[in-house]
Amino acid sequence: MRTIQAKQIEQAVYELAKEACLGIIPSCEAALAAAAEAEQPGSAAKFALETVLENAATAKKECMPVCQDTGYAVVLAEIGQDVRIEGKLLQDAVDDGVRRAYEDLCFRKSVCDPLTRVNTADNTPAALHTEIVAGERVRLTFLPKGFGSENMSRLYMLTPSQGVQGILESIVETVRLAGSKPCPPVVCGVGIGGTFDTCAFLAKKALTRELGSHNPRADIAAIEKEALARINALGIGPQGFGGNVTALGVLCEIAPTHIAGLPVAVNIQCHCMRAAKREL
Amino acid sequence: MKKLTLPLTEEDIRGLHAGESVLLSGEILTGRDCAHKRICEMLDRGETLPFPLSGETIYYAGPCPAPQGKACGSCGPTTSARMDAYAPRLLALGLKGMIGKGERSDAVCDAVTEHGAVYFAAIGGAGALYGNAVKKSELVAFPDLLSEAVYRFTVEDFPCIVAID
Predict the structure, then answer these.
(1) Which of A84, A112, B9, B151 has CB atoms 3.0–4.6 Å from B30's, for a disulfide?
(2) Are residues A166 and A219 both part of a single domain?
(3) B65: domain range?
(4) Hey, is the C-beta of A177 within 8 angstroms of any chain B C-beta?
(5) B65 with A64: Cβ contact below 8 A
(6) CB nearest B129 (choices: A47, A51, A182)
């Protein structure tokens, strides 16, 4: 049994929040540069992508959040079952890291009561997802999730007969209905299978993968490629200005489901893909 | 790129065409979900707004807090469609410009035409660039709304695309 101090987790969350909010992940930056090349010279689409790339460079240089929506703090914690956390509750450690980071680093506090809309003023609570895994390490992933894109996400409870075509149509419909609202070019995190709730989590977890990666299962990787091609044929384009690139990638994760169902969750991510990971 | 100085005149607005890139300089107000809701609730109660809307341009944005030495933190546009429920009412009160990201409802498009206003699309996700274009920021109303409060920004060369003229 290995002991990890809750303070270490708090500090790691603080540093991960900083790293995540100040820049877009390299695989996303590369995809945006490739997208800018794919748009017509002089088009609004190309202008939008070049502006976004210039923004990423400015954010890095001046240590400013790349987007003002520093997000709902989503934290995925894979906890080895031979680890004991000492000092305080895991949720409190994560929230303390978030609170300190968002205050110290001038990040926007964007969490509020769903009805009164009163802001919690410190960006807590974090959405903490824990998974118990083998071993004695703790792996943390920090995903600051903006809501312009989160709002455009959808969950479909398909029937088994709808199959692969149904999955593809659900992904493409989600992007089509979102239009210009979620800051395209988007990234789709897709959950396939599981239950109503685990399917949505799979979609979120898919967004922690690198852009350009593919699901190791060939039939799922084929869905990722086909969905991306169909989305880019929509012509929505960067910022909805029309163009060739409406999505930068489709990332699918799967889990076994019930014999009666085929849940599909599509979690939309804007072009500003941010994440940071660390193992303790 | 065409440069425009705020407040917008009727002549400025008549000269704008959808798809055209512009650089805005001058004063704008910020306002997003909660501020719009509060403005409309005040109007429902027959109260006077703490700031007149006539001739103003509203930027749909909620900035990050300003770090030391800067007027404003990162401050890109938010999704305009969420303000569609409120925008026609504000346009009827003389609001001349709106800046945000993404498409608007038919009702907003009609109100823009009817009242001789304009909707500018800013580039979503370019928070650092837009934050740097803010040279001065002053709290105008609703401080309890934190980042959703109404601020008066003085901006310089704020890049936008005319979306609805």
Answers:
(1) B151
(2) yes
(3) 2-164
(4) no
(5) no
(6) A51
